[in-house]
Amino acid sequence: MIGMLTGTCLVSGSGEAIIDVNGVGYLVQCGSRTLGAFGIGETVCLHVETHVREQAITLFGFHSEEERAWFVRLQSVQGVGPKAALAILDILTPGEILSAASLEDKTTFARASGVGPKLAARIATELSGKPPPAGRGIGGAFTAPSAGKQSEAARAEGLSDMRLRNDAVSALVNLGIGQPDALRAVASAYNTFSDDPDLDDLIKVALKELSG
């Protein structure tokens, strides 16, 4: 199985790119946000999810391990295939997916192309109360060497956001609050800040959400 590709982008089209790795061109399916982050001739590094089917092997590429892990998690919901999962990741960051799921916000998921109201409701319900996917590596924190300033910044921002939320949830759980309630409280509290809060402020607001 292919878990990662680092090479030169030869072609970037609608929903796919060709990455040259030591003379071998790999066709990789990507969301529009991923494709928009690199150009022809640039060196790129993609976390890859490999789908093996009877008649085809398909590679799906992502800038971060968090996105790849959520791509897999989303497809655990009945009715969500690769196309719908990519569509959701095109409009929502991993942190925003976690927030929407924690709040059972079906409207947010319904914004994705090809995700109707019934499917959006199923996604919100089935993912509610679940922690973020661990991903590959130790604690899911594995990241690849940098392949461009834009993708590096995106990975760093996503990791910082998820770690902040996870730390806040862990703090609430340590206070005896159930994980589903902690996830919902942190998601709701996080959405009240215009900028990234520090951990103490996020916990304080989350506790207010629980007592309100």
Reconstruct the topology from this structure:
Blueprint: E1 4-12, E2 16-21, E3 24-29, H1 32-35, E4 43-52, E5 57-62, H2 65-74, H3 82-91, H4 94-102, H5 106-110, H6 117-127, H7 149-174, H8 179-190, H9 199-211
Parallel strand pairs: 3-5
Antiparallel strand pairs: 1-2, 1-4, 2-3, 4-5
Helix pairs in contact: 2-3, 4-6, 4-8, 7-8, 7-9, 8-9
Task: Report what the structure shows.
This protein has helices spanning 32-35, 65-74, 82-91, 94-102, 106-110, 117-127, 149-174, 179-190, 199-211, and strands spanning 4-12, 16-21, 24-29, 43-52, 57-62. By secondary structure, the protein is of the alpha+beta class. The protein folds into 3 domains: 4-62, Nucleic acid-binding proteins (OB fold (Dihydrolipoamide Acetyltransferase, E2P), Beta Barrel); 65-127, Orthogonal Bundle (DNA polymerase, domain 1); 148-206. Strands 1-2-3-5-4 form a 5-stranded mixed β-barrel. A hairpin with a 4-residue loop joins strand 4 and strand 5 (57-62). Helix 2 crosses helix 3, helix 4 packs across helix 6 (117-127) and helix 8 (179-190) packs across helix 9. The radius of gyration is 18 Å and the shape is elongated. The termini are far apart.
